[in-house]
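This entry is passed on directly below:
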Amino acid sequence: MTLISILPSAVADQIAAGEVVERPSSVVKELVENSIDAGATAIEVTLEDGGRKLVRVSDDGAGMSAEDVPLALARHGTSKIKKAADLVGVPTFGFRGEALPAIASVSRFEIQTAAADGEGTSTKVVGGEIGRAERIARRRGTTVSVAQLFHNIPARLKFLRSARSEWRSAVESLTALALTQPSVRINVSHDGKNALTLPPVSSIRSRLGAIWGGRYAEDLLDVDDVSGPIHTSGLVQRPADVGTSTRRAFLSINGRAVRDAGIARAVEAAYRSTIVAGVRPSFFLNVTVPGDAVDVNVHPAKAEVRFRDRWTVERAVEAGVRRALGNFDSAASLGFRGSSFAFRPVDFPQNPGSEILRPPIARDVPLFDQSVPEFADPAGQFAADDTSEVAAPPAPIPPLMQLRHTYIAFEHEDGLVLIDQHSAHERVLYEQFMHTLESGAAPAQRLLLPLTLHLGPAEGEAFDANREYLERLGFEVEGFGGHTLIVNTVPMPHPRFDAERCLRETLDALTGDRVAGAAAKHERLAATVACKAAIKAGEELSQSEMRSLFASLRDTVLPAHDVHGRSTIVHLTWDEVERRFGRR
């Protein structure tokens, strides 16, 4: 007697169902994906008892002929692929040919379909047994009803959760599919009540507005970035809003909603030095890559993908999101999203990664330079008959005023803009210090009378751990026994710089720091020194100092945020001002 036997088809189908159908939301996902692949423009989804009692999906797609229905219900029956080569870059959602027979094997299943208006066919399947097809009258499209899921597998049935939990899972699946197909109308009802109505729209922002409200959607930032063959598009949360609402993360690859921890980490990496540690941003992104650069056939439920060159994709996503965060639109706004005010020209390097921090102002020019031009027509700086090639004039700077010795304010056609002078200077110095740490030692000023610092054991340990990087920033220090240090040279990022105070406060802040990795240490040290070295709130600035700070901030990569996640810039729109005064 042989030990090995071939499984009956019914058992094989139930095993396949275990891979494809985990819960009612899995059924919803598979059936709606089939509708989308069939070219549907409108999809109706009906659930009862969270989908445990009934899942029905009806569409106006291509439909099937009576001859095609038995083939669709057979294992590996599919219209999506014909040969193995078709798996490369397959653009459809469903292609394995297992979903319908797997679902039918564990439910009371019925499919009604017609390839054209008029005559169609209806077929029922109970426990994997296909019944006789009946002719019916119906419109073009398909309706699939799945009742009493897992009725014939009690062990699976008892693992279903409450109706509320299953309904919530189904909504999550439907939301992900709706975001990949904003042009498709989707209506959802639950227990006889209309639960979700999503009309066809032209953009993911409009789709988000229909799901979670227009205010939520309008507060998100646009991402539209191309890096070689990789296109990253969608919406991300402004840094000022991260942590203030429910985190929502959505990712699709070539229009297919998937989970990918690596790309999620790349998105979060783009926010470094703009949000506080421990909070995670919301994002809604689609990444388009060449079909032969991604394998979608690695997960039974098609929920994951494999990249041929993962590093390149992740770096492209990180760079694309970081570029979006560098726009003025990412600043905190009071009134509405999308000012036309360009705080600075967008000019980023093409290489992703740490190179995205381009060099700021030259180190031999003090931050508070006296030569920054006033607001003027740049064309007026050149003679009309001058046809020689000249460098582009510096971007004009508007008239500035200081409020409470803390904020720099200026008027723009779209509203009033406020800049926090400490946060702004902190951002300028951070990017300057990062460039110094990555490119080499900075110029330093030798002190006529060296500083003597007496440190405690913890501060001394912090100095030893960061000595190499402090020297790159311009601190030349030598030991003088125990934890006493002699400081001979210091950096001079600006005339108001207090080197002794900065070094003491930096070492105190770094006490007990256990950051691993050179890149992380660079960022931690640069952020700490920038915070301690920046001008403070309450310091009076001259007009030339304010103009110089404005110009320096404009030249940074992420001008709207300081290194602690606070907003550097706040924009109060005229619409909001007029509403406050009752003019609107």
Q: What stands out?
A: Residues 336-342, 344-367, 369-390 have pLDDT under 50 and may be disordered.
